Amino acid sequence: MPVTDVQHDLENLTLTITADFAAPVSRIWQVYADPRQLEKVWGPPSHPATVVDHTLTPGSRTTYFMTGPDGEKYAGYWEITAVNEPTSFSFLDGFADADFNPNPDLPVSKNTYTFTEHDGGTRAVYVATFASAEGLQQVLDMGVVEGSTLAINQIDALIAS
């Protein structure tokens, strides 16, 4: 499994996930740059994602929804803040209503995804920073560690196909 470490730090308001892939940095970058590939790995297997809009450029907005096993839909968005192709990008990640309007009752995280060469493949470090310990705890209670781990672990099958 690609995910090798998960750390949440309520004091520093961060959730950090590290994963190693047997593929070059440019290939892992494509998983996140291409909306059709991204939707194969953004949600966990039980909640596949549909990416509606996605361009990995600063100032752009990605919109998506995940569909649960009973057909319920959970919308979200990214606001892309920085892109350094193919090694990193940063974005705000938030929950949304069905029309992709931000949900003010749920936390927004600042995310930086970094891809570096490691042991002939790629090490990905995913860091989410929250405005408060309560916001981080809220997503931890919602199962973000389990869901993110399941989602990221789908990347191996995608890059092998």
Automatic annotation (TrEMBL):
InterPro entries: ASHA1/2-like_C, START-like_dom_sf. Residues 23-159 form the Activator of Hsp90 ATPase homologue 1/2-like C-terminal domain. It holds the Pfam family AHSA1. It comes from Mycolicibacterium sphagni. Signal peptide: none annotated. Belongs to the AHA1 family. This is Polyketide cyclase.
